[in-house]
């Protein structure tokens, strides 16, 4: 079981030039749990994740890891505790899958440290977990979008951090591979106590797999808590401008959102 770490945003404001994206945001990530961040496009989800991994410096406020600002950590020290899978990572041209996944081991190696058996074990386990073993010798350039996404997730797993941040980890994946990846992250959380924070577009996947749900709207936290408390018809209307019905998922017992389009409004009104 991994050691739990605290990750907190305190009065966080983020901007790109003059454009403010996040304004005075407070957020506590529950340690040892799975948190999903949801919200409409351009509400600040990816920007928040970038700041939490110190890729983007705050305009105001702080992101604190164990009470210390993430920007004060040496890069390698931070990378041994906190890993990030960004939304659209770019692989070096011509790199093989095995070499890319192996780069997840760099934070664990010193200047004079050679590649060790434990590095081989970590890379092999990551490839196995993401069903990418057969891709190990292939160039990343020649993979499909779904295969490439699985390889990037393998690299993040090989890093073996106690905190893992993932921006749209199910992008490019068909539904069966989406389930496999989310099951894998759940296994990682349950077995090692890894704190997982992920941005997801699919509200129902987020509600099914997350212990803690954060809904962002206009750069602020609109609601945060257990999925059943956050994924409500009122919240969905406020955050997404969407009418919906929320029922209990008969498989998971979690909330299940059914969107109502314009052409179904009359039917829904008659049924309600």
Short account of what is shown:
With 272 residues, the protein is α/β, with parallel strands linked by helices. The protein is built from 10 helices and 12 strands. A hairpin with a 2-residue loop joins β9 (212-217) and β10 (220-225).
Q: So what's the CATH class?
A: Alpha Beta
Question: So how many helices?
Answer: 10
Apparent shape: globular
Q: Give the tally of structural domains.
A: 1
Strand order of the largest sheet: 6-7-8-3-9-10
Estimated helix fraction: 25-40%
CATH superfamily: P-loop containing nucleotide triphosphate hydrolases
Total DSSP E strands: 12
- Which sheet architecture does the biggest sheet show? 6 strands, mixed
Q: Which structural class best describes the helix and strand composition?
A: alpha/beta
Which percent range describes the beta-strand content? 25-35%
The average pLDDT score comes to 91
Low-confidence stretches: none
What's the order of the H and E elements? EEEHEEHEHHHEHEHEEHHEEH
- Which architecture per CATH? 3-Layer(aba) Sandwich
CATH topology type: Rossmann fold
Structural Rg? 19 Å
- The end-to-end distance, rounded to whole angstroms, is 48 Å
GO molecular function, one term: ATP binding
GO biological process, one term: iron ion transport
InterPro entries: AAA+_ATPase (IPR003593), ABC_transporter-like_ATP-bd (IPR003439), ABC_transporter-like_CS (IPR017871), P-loop_NTPase (IPR027417), Siderophore_ABC-ATPase (IPR051535)
Membrane topology: Peripheral membrane protein
């Amino acid at each position: 079981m991994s050691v739990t770490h605290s990750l907190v945003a305190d009065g966080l404001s983020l901007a790109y030039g003059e454009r403010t994206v996040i304004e005075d945001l407070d957020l506590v990530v529950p340690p040892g749990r799975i948190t999903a961040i949801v919200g409409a496009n351009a509400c600040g989800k990816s920007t928040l994740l970038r700041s939490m991994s110190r890729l983007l410096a705050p305009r105001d406020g702080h992101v604190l890891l164990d009470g210390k600002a993430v920007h004060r950590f040496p890069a390698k020290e931070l990378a041994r505790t906190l890993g990030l899978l960004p939304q659209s990572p770019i692989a070096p041209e011509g790199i093989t899958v095995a070499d890319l996944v192996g780069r997840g081991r760099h934070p664990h190696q010193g200047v004079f440290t050679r590649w060790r058996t434990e590095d081989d074990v970590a890379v092999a386990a990551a490839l196995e977990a993401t069903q990418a073993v057969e891709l190990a010798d292939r160039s990343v350039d020649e993979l499909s979008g779904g295969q490439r996404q699985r390889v990037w997730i393998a690299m993040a797993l090989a890093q073996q951090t106690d905190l893992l941040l993932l921006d749209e980890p199910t992008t490019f994946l068909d539904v069966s591979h989406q389930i496999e990846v989310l099951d894998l992250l759940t296994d990682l959380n349950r077995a090692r106590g890894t704190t997982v924070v992920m941005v997801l577009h699919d509200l129902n996947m987020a509600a099914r797999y997350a212990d803690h749900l954060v809904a962002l709207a206009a750069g602020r936290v609109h609601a945060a808590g257990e999925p059943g408390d956050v994924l409500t018809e009122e919240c969905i209307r406020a955050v997404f401008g969407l009418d919906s019905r929320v029922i209990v998922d008969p498989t998971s017992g979690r909330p299940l959102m059914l969107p109502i389009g314009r052409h179904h409004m009359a039917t829904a009104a008659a049924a309600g």
